Amino acid sequence: QVQLVESGGGLVQAGGSLRLSCAASGRTFSNYAMGWFRQPPGKEREFVAGISWGGGSTYYSDSVKGRFTISRDNAKNTVYLQMNSLGPADTAVYYCAAHLITSLTVVVLTTVADYDYWGQGTQVTVSS
């Protein structure tokens, strides 16, 4: 089992940037494909970005493509989400998630059901 702890959320003005971090502990981090999701107020949790176990493959939702960047440092057991050009629509609780891979096939997962472990979330609020 892996434990995930997000940090880096906060209040930012529209047009600003934030970098979220997700620290993992408990198991070999490189055994997991990772993802970021968000849940806006009153809405369902939605996919934001995903990254393969080695970091070589990434995928983004259309709403964040070109503004957000997901990356990972397996030596530090951490996955990041760099968020630029933030707008009020990006206001949400952001969650990181992990999926234990069963082979070395490069996969990037994009649905809530794909992931086995979740962090507690970090609030991001963007003011207009």
Classification by helices and strands: mainly beta
What ranges have pLDDT less than 50 throughout 5 or more consecutive residues?
none
| Number of helices, counting only DSSP H or I runs of 4 residues or more | 0
What's the N-to-C terminus distance?
A: 40 Å
Percent helix range: under 10%
Task: Describe the main β-sheet briefly.
Answer: 7 strands, mixed
Note the beta-strand portion.
over 45%
What is Rg?
14 Å
Order of helices and strands: EEEEEEEEEEE
Identify the overall geometry: globular
Notable features of this structure?
globular, about 130 residues, mainly beta, 11 strands, four-stranded antiparallel beta sheet
Describe the structure.
This protein is mainly beta. 0% of the residues lie in helices and 49% in strands. Strands 2, 4, 5, 6, 9, 10 and 11 form a seven-stranded mixed beta sheet that branches. The chain has a four-stranded antiparallel beta sheet with strand order 1-3-8-7, with no helix packed on it. The relative contact order is 0.32.
Give a brief outline of the structure.
With 128 residues, the protein is an all-beta fold.
Chart the SSEs and their pairings.
Blueprint: E1 3-7, E2 10-13, E3 18-25, E4 32-39, E5 46-51, E6 58-60, E7 68-73, E8 78-83, E9 92-100, E10 117-118, E11 122-127
Parallel strand pairs: 2-11
Antiparallel strand pairs: 1-3, 3-8, 4-5, 4-9, 5-6, 7-8, 9-10, 9-11
